[in-house]
Structure formats: structure tokens, C-alpha cells
Specification:
By secondary structure, the protein is mainly alpha-helical. Helix content is 85%, strand content 0%. It has four helices and no strands. The chain is elongated.
Length: 149
């Protein structure tokens, strides 16, 4: 079964909505989730504080990234794919991933398992930066092609 472009964009937007709902739930209960997690592993107060701060700092980056991805999908649906605006959106998403990596790296001094999130976020930064670079190159190629008549 082949999924059409519009269905793929719709599926991606549905995934963004699901992630946004999960992020909202985490924002509402972040402290309680961190407290439960730390209590279940007998972690001390500094780990609880670090985890809570990390959750809410990363939330800011996550909301920003979700919004940028939502707008990017809207542009793609409108056939505005290789534009400077989309490059800017991808750059913002990559910086959001880098921000999460930095926050989690700082938090790993209090709870070492944050190192896994740090590595994952840093890897996502790399992937999004490469996609952004591909978009920039495509824009240059497209403008050269537009000049060739």
C-alpha cells in the first residue's frame, strides 16, 4: 500500500499532535514524574532537582521544535519546500536538539542515565543539521536552474 504525499503529511501532523499531548502531560506532571522516578530508585534530592529542571528546560526546546516542524509540514503541503524559511525552521529544530543535549549533559552529573538522552539529542542535532544543509544546497541549485532558461 502506497501512502500519498498528503496522507504522509497528515500522519506526520498527527504524530506531532500526539507528541504535543504527551509533552503537555509531562509539563503538567513533570515534578511528580521526577519525584516518583527518583523515589523508585532511591535517588537523593539533587537528582530530583536536576531531573525536574531538565524536564522543564527541555520542554521549552521541545515545544519550539514541534511548532517549527508543524509549520515546516504546512509549507511542504503548500509546495513551498526548498525555501529559506524552511532552512531557518530546520536550523531552529537543530538548535533545539542541541539545547536538549546541553541540558541533559549538565543533568548527567546528577543522574548518569541522562547521558543516553544527551547522545540521542546530539545525534538528532547532527541529522537535522545535515538535512538543513541539503535544503540549503537544493535552494542554490534551484535558483541556478531558475536562471537557466
Amino acid at each position: 500500500m502506497k501512502i500519498s504525499r498528503d496522507h504522509s503529511i497528515l500522519l506526520s501532523k498527527c504524530c506531532i499532535v500526539i507528541f504535543a499531548a504527551a509533552l503537555f502531560a509531562l509539563d503538567c506532571g513533570g515534578y511528580f514524574a521526577a519525584r516518583w522516578f527518583c523515589a523508585s530508585r532511591s535517588l537523593q534530592t539533587p537528582a530530583l532537582v536536576a531531573m525536574t529542571v531538565a524536564i522543564y528546560c527541555c520542554s521549552i526546546f521541545a515545544w519550539t521544535a514541534l511548532w517549527q516542524l508543524w509549520k515546516l509540514l504546512g509549507n511542504i503541503r503548500n509546495d513551498d519546500v526548498f525555501t529559506a524559511e524552511n532552512v531557518r525552521r530546520l536550523r531552529t529544530v537543530s538548535w533545539c536538539c542541541a539545547g536538549v543535549a546541553m541540558v541533559c549533559f549538565a543533568a548527567c552529573f546528577f543522574y548518569v542515565s541522562f547521558l543516553f538522552v544527551t547522545v540521542a539529542a546530539a545525534f538528532m542535532t547532527l541529522i537535522v543539521r545535515i538535512i538543513k544543509n541539503v535544503f540549503e544546497q537544493a535552494i542554490e541549485m534551484k535558483s541556478e536552474l531558475d536562471l537557466t532558461v
